[in-house]
Amino acid sequence: MEENRTNNVKKNVFYSYTTTLTTSIISIVCRTVFVYTLGADYLGVSGLFSNVLGLLSFSELGIGTAINFSLYKPIAENDEEKIKSLLHLYKTAYRIIAVIVAITGLLIFPFLKYIVNTDIPMSEINIFYFIFLFNTVSSYFVTYKTAYVSALQKEYIVTNTTAIGTVVTNICQIILLFLGGNYLIFLLTASIIGLLQKTIAVVYLNKKYPILTEKQSLPLDTQTKSGIWRNVKALIIHKVGEVAVHQTDNIIISSFVSTAAVGIISNYTILNTFVSCFTNGFFNSFTAGFGNMIAKESKDKQRHIFEVYDLLGFWMFGFVMIAFITLSQPFITLWLGKKLLVDDFTMVLYFFSLYLQGMTIIPYNFKVAAGRFNEDKWVAFTQALTNLVASIIAVKLIGLPGVYVGTIIQRMIVVAVRPHIVFKYVLEKRSIEYYVRFVMRTLLALALCLVLWEIKKLILVEVTLLRFLVMCVLTFLIPNIAFLTLFVRSESFKDILARLKRR
Predict the structure, then answer these.
(1) In a domain, 426, yes or no
(2) pLDDT band at residue 238 using 50, 70 and 90 as cut-offs
């Protein structure tokens, strides 16, 4: 069983990395052509509408997460009747959600003029919005099928089909932009190809997994339904916090700074998206395996695995933060020019907030895999209120950096609470050691940021490609040598090394 988990994880990670590298390269090329042909205002519109419609993901209410968790056990036991019953519930729920999202999107439409802060005519903005809304609604009709594949620990199938659609879309968009295409054509291209990709994915998954087309033969038992409903009620509250945290920053920036500023910050976002597809994809590949492990392995084994992946998490996310803070400004200068840079203070706050987000992934994956949705549901409202109030107050006082001050404050709440839930209810161990370790590791990462910042001031007196490459080498070597020196004797590192040797 452990070997099967490991093989699936290896496939998930391999295909996640391969497709991410491919799609990210073509997306960066597409972004470059986009900026030089259409400009920052249209880039800002894309970022803004992605966040506005991301707010509508609240309509999902955590149903997907709750049903996905419920699929782990019947899949492990090969209980096909229960799987079909759960998939039927999933399909029905997501069709209702699609209707709710469409209606809510139409209700938001009259308020666009209050959050869009740009010189682009509102007549064009309205058309763009409806295309984004269509793309969002149509995605709900295939979600339950892809969720079943993910619960099988075969996320790579979904990853590959999505990647093919992304590559084809971006290539077509680049060609059309070079031929003089406008933003409307750019969006319609993505919408049409996206619809074709979803249709092909459904046909492929139906053929590969016939259970997806079989009708429900037995009603879902009361115990399972009550369990799903109990988790959904908790996840509704979590969803409020998630939406308020992840989908409101660009709306605040557009309203209080400018829509063009959303486009400029999105240059940093795309760098994070590129890297986080590797980091988050790596760790998220283990979630279904964690669920299986928690159901079968001892607490000692669970604690050990948690510590191993916690060290991996810090190594990855700590290094990523250091690299971004050191290299993002010169990279964007070489890529797009100084006019599309944010100030250093905003940049540092943005990437530090992403480090905090990344460091909670391992506790979150353990919590989800164990089905612990109820214990920290109150945190979501605290997050939502803190993020909105702190970000709006701070953006009025200090401008753009204030948005990320609010984000950091609310993420500290999650950093404090989520690991405690995992240690108390899943690992059944005191969490104080984890927090001490977290603080010491974070201080280490920030100290290395300072060291490299000083080195950068000496080397990048003038931003040239050669000097930038020298700085890249130093940024790779110094933190990783420091981490290796400090962690080489730890049991977690020895376990990682042993696993690498075996694989």
Answers:
(1) yes
(2) low
